[in-house]
Design brief:
The protein is of the alpha+beta class. It has one domain: Longin domain (Beta-Lactamase, 2-Layer Sandwich), CATH 3.30.450.50. It has six helices and six strands. It has a six-stranded mixed sheet with strand order 2-1-5-4-3-6, sandwiched between helices. α2 crosses α6.
Length: about 220
């Protein structure tokens, strides 16, 4: 059963539209996966994808992702739900959303600018709730060549990889800051060493010049 659907702009992860079951239908387990779906979109926007179709396992559930025309379509379903139907569902959303709002995606600045699309999401989702209907069984019997191009990853692989990159970025930033501090301290120490080395000589020279001047002045 299709549970959660999120449409986002790929370049920056800005949410465009969303379709979910009621909180009662979702339950606590699925409710916890809603923020994970948004994190997933942000990670996908940061990395170049090898395929525009991706399935990501997450325990008893799976995220199915379709990327087209700078829009990322994500839906969540039980892992047992047929992959063919999940992507057929996303294809229908993609077709209608592109027709209605495709030209406006790049220009919007506020989240959920196309929230009205939720009506179409809910209507379409109802058609895919039961995979055993005659309509859906007929789709399953069709050979979809795109299914062979769908990559499969784990949620840890996708989100964990991004978290490692974030950690490395933070470490690099910290090292750069520490290097600057070290360079500054080294410069200060070098200056202090020069002062300690040449100050006595400068003092002696100054005293000699002063004595010679006084002798000249007094004579």
């Amino acid at each position: 059963m299709v549970r959660l659907t999120v449409l986002s702009r790929l370049v920056d992860g800005l949410p465009l539209a969303e379709g979910v079951e009621s909180d009662k239908e979702l339950g606590p387990e699925l409710e916890n996966l809603k923020p994970q779906a948004k994190r997933l979109v942000k990670k996908l926007s940061q990395e170049r994808q090898e395929s525009n179709r991706l399935t990501i396992d997450s325990g008893k559930f799976a995220f199915h992702v379709l990327i087209d025309n700078s829009v990322c379509y994500v839906t969540l379903a039980e892992k047992s739900y047929p992959k063919k139907l999940a992507f057929q569902y996303l294809e229908e959303l993609n077709s209608e959303f592109s027709r209605l709002y495709g030209a406006s995606v790049e220009s919007v600045t506020r989240p959920y600018a196309f929230i009205k699309f939720d009506t179409f999401i809910q209507k379409t989702r109802k058609l895919y709730v039961d995979s055993r209907t005659q309509r859906n069984l007929s789709m399953l019997n069709k050979e979809l060549s795109e299914v062979h191009q769908i990559m499969t990853k784990s949620i840890q692989e996708v989100l964990g990889h991004g978290e490692k990159l974030d950690t490395m970025t933070r470490m690099s930033t910290t090292l750069a800051m520490e290097s600057k501090k070290y360079a500054g301290r080294a410069k200060d120490l070098h200056t202090q060493a020069l002062i300690r080395k040449y100050l006595p000589i400068g003092v002696v020279i100054g005293i000699v010049i002063l004595v010679l001047y006084l002798r000249t002045w007094l004579s």
